Amino acid sequence: MKHHSKTPMDHSPYGQSFTLWRDGCPTAWQDYTDHAFVEGLRSGSLPRAAFLHYLVQDYVFLVHFARAWSLGVIKADTLDEMKSCARTVDALVNHEMALHVTTCAAADIDEATLFAATEEFETLAYTRYVMDAGLHGDYLDLMAALAPCCFGYGEIGLRLAGSAEPGTPYQDWIKTYADAGYQNTMKAVGRMMDMALERRLGPDPTLSPRWPRLQHRFATATRLESAFWDMGLRAG
Amino acid sequence: MKHHSKTPMDHSPYGQSFTLWRDGCPTAWQDYTDHAFVEGLRSGSLPRAAFLHYLVQDYVFLVHFARAWSLGVIKADTLDEMKSCARTVDALVNHEMALHVTTCAAADIDEATLFAATEEFETLAYTRYVMDAGLHGDYLDLMAALAPCCFGYGEIGLRLAGSAEPGTPYQDWIKTYADAGYQNTMKAVGRMMDMALERRLGPDPTLSPRWPRLQHRFATATRLESAFWDMGLRAG
Amino acid sequence: MKHHSKTPMDHSPYGQSFTLWRDGCPTAWQDYTDHAFVEGLRSGSLPRAAFLHYLVQDYVFLVHFARAWSLGVIKADTLDEMKSCARTVDALVNHEMALHVTTCAAADIDEATLFAATEEFETLAYTRYVMDAGLHGDYLDLMAALAPCCFGYGEIGLRLAGSAEPGTPYQDWIKTYADAGYQNTMKAVGRMMDMALERRLGPDPTLSPRWPRLQHRFATATRLESAFWDMGLRAG
Amino acid sequence: MKHHSKTPMDHSPYGQSFTLWRDGCPTAWQDYTDHAFVEGLRSGSLPRAAFLHYLVQDYVFLVHFARAWSLGVIKADTLDEMKSCARTVDALVNHEMALHVTTCAAADIDEATLFAATEEFETLAYTRYVMDAGLHGDYLDLMAALAPCCFGYGEIGLRLAGSAEPGTPYQDWIKTYADAGYQNTMKAVGRMMDMALERRLGPDPTLSPRWPRLQHRFATATRLESAFWDMGLRAG
Fold this sequence. Notes:
The structure is a homotetramer. Chain A is mainly α. Chain A is built from eleven helices and no strands. The first copy, chain A, has one domain: Heme oxygenase-like (Heme Oxygenase, Chain A, Up-down Bundle). In chain A, α4 runs antiparallel to α5 and α7 packs antiparallel against α11. Chains in contact: A-B, A-C, A-D, B-C, B-D, C-D. Chains A, B, C, D: Pathway: Cofactor biosynthesis; thiamine diphosphate biosynthesis.
C-alpha cells in the first residue's frame, strides 16, 4: 500500500513528511508561497510601509514562534527532539530576530517597540493557533503546525535568490532565508520531523488514522501564512 | 445607536473588576456591544444567513470556551474557583450549546457538522488567544480574557430584552442571555472574579503592577468580539 | 491474598484497553489492588489513623484528579470525549469528594483544612505525573495515566463488596466504589477510552509504535497507586 | 512596613528574592544543603554506587529541568526573561548534562541508557511538581519552584570548593558548581528573578498577597531536594 501514483515526485530537500503535507494542500501552498507580497519582495515593488508593517508583526510572530518551539522541548520524546527544538529557539531568539531588529532600527523602530507592538488579528490567530496545537495534541500536532513557516520561507528564499530583480531593496530578507545556514537548519528540522513521525506512527504515517488531522493542521497554518501576507499588504 | 454617557457610578451588576475593565476601554467596549450585528438582532434586520454563519462559528467558539474554562479548573487556587469554573464548563457544554444545536437543527445543520465546521480566522484568533492567555499567565490572565464574552453577552441580552422589535426573529437568542439563569450565573462569575483579584492583588487591584496587562487582555478580547461580529456580517 | 490466575479471557467490564494495560503489568497491578491497605479495609484491621491520613491525602489527590480530567476536556478531539471528561470533573468535585468531606467532618477535619493539607511526596509524585502526562503527550497519554485509579478502585470496590468482613468500619468507602453509579460511570469511561484509542491508533492499538509508551504510563501510574497505599499505612 | 529586623543580613550573591525565600524556610534549607549526601561528596565517603545512582536520576532530572525552563520561555513577559530562560535550556542540554554523560560513560552507562532510566518516585515528584507549578500559576510560580536547585547547588559548590577533603573522588562534581561559569550564570538568574518579581509584585514583593504561596513553592521544592539526596543514599 503505497502512494505510488504521484508521478512528478517533487521531493523536497526538507524531507518526506513536508513533501506529503505540502502536496496534500497544493492550492493553499501556492497561495502562500506565490503570494503578491512575495512577488513584491522579488520585484522590489513592495511598498516600504508594507514591508515594515510586516516586519514588526513578524518580529512579534517570532517571539511566539520561539514560545512554540519551547513547547516542543516540553513535548519531545527523545533527546534529539529536545536538542533540535532547543537549537531552534536559540536560532530564533539570537539570530533570525536580529534581521528584524537591524532593519527596524534603520527605520527608527527599536526592539522594545517591536516587543510591545500591538498585534494584528492575523498575528494573534496564527501564533496562538500554533501554541494551542501543542497544548491540544502531542509533539506531532505541534510539528505539523510549525512546518509551513519553516519550510515555506525556505522555498521562498531559494526561489527568490534565483529570480529576484537585481535592484530589489529586499535582498537582505531574501538572503536570510536563501542562506546555507537557514537551508541546512531546515533540512535538519525536516529530518527530525520525518523521524518523529515514523517513531510515533510507523514507517508510512499516511496510513495512521491521525494523518488527516495532521494534514489539516498543516493546511490551516498554511492558510494563516497567506493571511499574514495579506495583513502586510493592507498597510502598503 | 450609542450607549448613553456613563455617570461615574455606573456599577455593573457583574462586579467591580468587570466595571473597571469595561470602563478602561470604553470605545472598544461600545464597538462590541453596540455593533451593527447586535442592532440587527434587535431590529430583526440581520439576514438569516449572517445569523446562521455566526451561530455555527459561535458553536465552535463555545467548544473552545469550554476548553478555556477547563483551563480555569487547572489554574484555580481555591475550591470555590475550581467549582465555579467546573460549573461554567457544564453550563456551556450541556446548556448554552443546546440553543445552537436546536437552532441549527431547524436549518438542517446537525451537531457533528457544527463540531467539524471550518473555523474562520476570527474564531481562531479569539479562541486561541484566550487559551494562550491561560498558558502564558495565571488564573487572572485567563479571567481577564474570558470576561468580555461573559459580561458583554449579559449586557447585550438585557438591553435587547427591553428594546427589541416585537417581530425580530431573534427572540430566542435574546432570551438565552437576558434570562435570569444566565444573568444570575454571570453575577456569580463576577463575584468570583472580584474575589480572585483581591486574593492575588490585594484590595485595590488597580494599584498592582499587573493591572495594565490585565486591562490589555480584557481590551484585546473585547476587540476580538467585535471582529467576531464583523465575521458574522460578512456572510450576510 | 492473591488474585486467582487469569484465564486468557478475563475481559474487564471496563473495556479492552484497560484489560490490555492491566494484563501488561500483572505484578504491579496485583501489588496495587491486593495491597495490605486494601486488605485492611476489607478485614477492618486498618488503623483509623491510617485511614484518615489516607483520606486527607486522597482528597488532595481528587483535587488534582479533577484538574487532570479538565486537561482531558482541553485535549479531547470529539464532543463525546469532551462531555465524558466534563462529566467526570463534575462527579469528582460534586460527588466523590463528598465522601471524604463527610467522613473527615466526623473526625473534626473541615473541608478548608482538607484543601490546604500539606501534600505527602507520594501525592505530589502521582498527581503531578498525571498532569504532566497530559502536557507532554496527547489525549491518550493522559488517559493511560488516569486509567489505573479509575478502574483499580472499581475492581477493589467490587471485590471488597463481596468479601468484606461484616464488621469492617470501612463499609462506606467500599460502597462508594462498589456502587452501581460508580461502576456504570467506569464502564462508560472504559468505552470512551476504547474509542479514543481506536480513533487515533486504529482497530488494534497494540500494533502502534506508541503502545509501549502508553503501557509504560499505565504501569507507572499503577506503581504510584501502590506508593500511595504505602504512604497511608505509614501513618497507622 | 519593612523586614528591618533581620540583623545578620546574609545577602546571597544570587539576589534578594532568593535570600528572602531561603531565610523563609531555614530548617528545610539546611536539611537540603547540609545533607549527609553532600557531606559524603565533601569528605569522599559517599559510596560510588550511591553517587552513580544519584547521577543517573539527576540526568533524568535535568531533562525535565530543561523542559521546565522551556516553560519559562513560554511564560515570560519580557524579552530579557525569554532570553534568560532560553540560555538556561541551552546550558542544561549542552553543558551541565555533559558532566553526567562523561562520568557515567566512565562507568559504562551510555546516554541512551540515561535518557531511558526508570525514574525513582523522588525524581517524579520533584520534576513534575516544578512543571505543574508553571502550568498552574504564572512565571513567578515557576521561578519559585526552580530557584532551590539553581542556588542550592551554587551554595553547595562554593562551600565544598573551600572545604573538600583533597582526596575526595567527587572533585569534578564540586568544580562543576563552584566554577565561575556556573556561579556567574546563577548571579544573572538571580538578578532576572529579582526583576521578574518587582515587575509583577512591586518593589517589596513580600507585601503582595501572593508572597506566602511563592514562599510555599520554594519550600516545597527545597524539601524535594532533600528527598532526592535521600534517594541517592538509599542506593549506597
